[in-house]
Specification:
alpha+beta; Jelly Rolls; 4-stranded antiparallel β-sheet; 9 helices; elongated
Amino acid sequence: MKLTDALKGVPLFEDLDEESLQVLAERSTVRSVPSGRLLLMEQDEGLSLYILLSGRVSVQRQTVSGRNVLIAERGPGEHFGEMSLLDGRGHSADVLALTDCELLIISRDAFAKTVTDHPSVALSVMRTLSGRLRELTADLTRSRSLDLMGRVCAALLDLANGQGVLEDITQKSLAARTGASREAVNRTLQNLQDAGYIAISKRIIRLLDRTALSKRADHIT
């Protein structure tokens, strides 16, 4: 795939003309990274904007006790690393490749030039950051209102994204998403299975009763 074609598919650059896309493509690179690779580390200097062409990554932070807490997941077309480019400070979180990924990497200078020449890109970044802040606020409110059972149910429904089967979902990833220990998540999953809400087979979770899961996820303690 040509870089200009890849850039066309990124919402951040949807208003750029062909010439501008070509200039940006000449200043960008594509990198393939394997699953499990740490792409960014918290507090490291931000030198580039990263755009996912394929694959998924997790944005996470480590607590004082050493537990990883999931902040968000990003998929194709989404970007990360922009905050440190905007404020000149270190990254606010770690970014880990959850799957094999293909990344479009744009240097700080190239990004700054694009924003200067095309203010619509800056507005798009602002809209994205605003949306992420709203999501984070909603997630924080929900996490403080729900018990662990409710948080696990909500996480399963979010990860399923309308599907009835979840594959390769680990207790570790659910623990990071819900802010709990792996042991506590394991007990909660077992309770959900005993109640007939889900069925677990190896690393596959089937959602048997989405209505019940949804009601439990909306239950405020």
